[in-house]
Design brief:
single chain, alpha/beta, Metallo-beta-lactamase, Chain A, 7-stranded mixed sheet, 30% helix, globular
Length: 527
């Protein structure tokens, strides 16, 4: 039997109902809103104005907007997708309408008196799946009983994984461009939770029987020749296990960082590039250890909770750590339920200031303010990590809205040796991520005010001082070109985000601290 390995430049894109898969398209409540108020509207707009969409998707200032990046000749296919969505997604579209009707009923009629009488008028799509509640300001709201919602509306048969060869970084922005079948790609119509997907990804590291794999994945005869081109008989260069007594930290791009001792490996916010001949240099999947002890997820945004990467490393992950969600909140779907439904088993929810201990140290959840449009979202956590005598803080996209928090946290963390912090201090408006979830369209003034902002120079420096940091690195800025398909960001030297990040690193250096802005690939060794 010849040995075959999956090539390092084989791209595997997860899809749900022909759209790029992300968390808000998997949880049924958020999926229903996004289908009805985002994706159907994008399809309708393209059908009316295909040239506008094509031109807008090529404008650096508009990349990341609601524009389909497809030639105008694809109008008929988009019309067909629109019509099939109305039919195939009827249940979810009705669920979205039912949620809006229930919100309207509470808004118009709930006046502070008991909500008991309202249950008889709950739309049938939601009956038995919601609790009607007041907050302490007597505003009525809906608490969704998510497991029952999944039981009624979740359909894994709408999931697929598309295989293709990739040789360049600049993929089209995927969150607004649907997938259309292509002879250059192979679509595996298989639920994400299926273990056969693990066998595909294991073949990147372990030699496989290609014929057996094709049989397991149900690769039909006419696709077998093309599928075979995704494999090589040349054994790849594997990750070398870290054997020293110290700590190695590797930056994989954006907010993805790997920490390794000879006993433990911790990977934060996995989002990893494929390997091909392109600049800048980068670490890729083969630079991960065979076993990853802990994967830490900081928050539920698509550039930190990336299905495309998570599915490819699932077979390597021992334990995945997540922040606990705001139970039953539409804007804050359960990360635990999402991970369970894409095939992860060993999931740990970590509360604020709660700690996980391991042989080399401990992981502590740290409060994460801001970057969520002032919505009551709890699925977000920074992480303080003690490992082999060193302390690191991954503050991710935290916005230092109240520096008193960090002064108080100092008594828990002590001085921090190394801090990583994102500084997208002027982020997207709230509607970019959360727009479809609002019962009524957020007015322009609110939307522009409540942006998904991180810290600027002054705020980041206050954290640095409060926690007595010795090193500070600006990360999670979305600058690596392989992030284009989910970030859609194009900064220039005049962009406020880069100006503030540069000011911060300069201030750190003037104060005698090590500082920098890792890009592409970086590595640190600590004895």
């Amino acid at each position: 039997m010849k040995k075959h390995w999956l090539r390092s430049n084989v791209c595997t894109e997860p899809l749900i109902s022909n759209w790029y898969a992300w968390s808000h398209l998997l949880a049924p409540t958020t999926a229903s809103a996004n289908l009805s108020k985002r994706y159907l509207q994008i399809l309708q707009s393209y059908i009316k104005h295909p040239e506008l969409h094509l031109n807008a998707s090529k404008d650096p200032k508009l990349i990341g907007g609601p524009y389909i990046n497809l030639p105008t000749i694809e109008v008929e296919k988009i019309k067909a997708l629109y019509q099939s969505t109305l039919v195939n997604e009827r249940q979810l579209l009705e669920l979205s309408e039912a949620i809006d009707r229930l919100h309207a009923m509470l808004e118009n009629s709930a006046n502070g008196l008991s909500l008991e009488s309202f249950y008889s008028d709950v739309p049938s799509q939601l009956a038995g799946c919601v609790e009607l509640v007041y907050d302490l300001h007597n505003n009525a709201n809906i608490r969704f009983i998510e497991p029952l919602i999944y039981q009624q509306y979740y359909d894994s048969n709408k999931q697929s994984v598309v295989l293709s060869t990739i040789n360049e970084d600049m993929r089209p922005f995927s969150l607004s461009t649907p997938y259309l079948p292509s002879e250059r790609k192979i679509s595996l119509n298989i639920p994400f939770s299926q273990q056969s997907i693990d066998m595909l990804y294991q073949s990147r590291r372990e030699a496989c029987d290609l014929n057996k794999l094709m049989e397991i994945l149900n690769i039909v005869d006419k696709q077998q020749q093309q599928f075979s081109t995704y494999f090589t008989e040349e054994c790849p260069n594997m990750h070398r296990r870290y054997e020293s007594d110290g700590l190695r930290v590797r930056y994989f791009g954006h907010a993805c960082v790997l920490m390794e001792t000879k006993n433990t490996s911790i990977l934060i916010d996995p989002l990893i590039s494929y390997s091909y001949n392109a600049k800048p240099e980068r670490f890729s999947y083969l630079d991960l250890p065979n076993k990853i002890d802990y994967v830490l997820i900081t928050h539920n945004h698509q550039d930190h909770f990336d299905f495309e990467t998570l599915l490819q490393i699932r077979h390597q992950v021992d334990q995945i750590v997540i922040p606990r969600n705001n139970n039953g909140c539409l804007a804050d779907p359960s990360l635990k339920l999402i991970l369970q439904h894409i095939g992860f088993g060993n999931i740990t929810q970590l509360d604020e200031l709660e700690t996980i201990s391991f042989s080399d140290g401990e992981i502590t959840g740290i409060p994460f303010l801001g970057e969520h449009g002032d919505l009551n979202i709890q699925s977000k956590s920074a992480y303080h990590i003690k490992i082999n005598g060193r302390t690191l803080l991954f503050a991710v996209d935290s916005n230092n809205l109240d520096n008193s928090l960090y002064k108080k946290l100092a008594s828990h963390t002590g001085p921090v040796d190394t801090m990583f912090i994102g500084m997208e201090c002027s982020g997207a408006p709230s509607s970019w991520t959360y727009g479809p979830l609002f019962h009524k369209k957020l007015n322009y003034e609110f939307d522009q005010s409540r942006r998904l902002n991180g810290s600027d120079c002054d705020k980041a420096w206050q954290i640095t001082e409060a926690l007595a940091c010795k090193e500070a690195y600006v990360y999670a800025m979305g600058q690596e070109p392989w992030l284009h398909h989910i970030m859609g960001l194009t900064y220039t030297e005049d962009s406020i985000q880069l100006k503030e990040a540069n000011k911060f690193t300069q201030r750190c250096k003037q104060a005698g601290l090590k500082a920098g802005k890792p890009y592409g690939k970086s590595e640190w060794h600590y004895p």
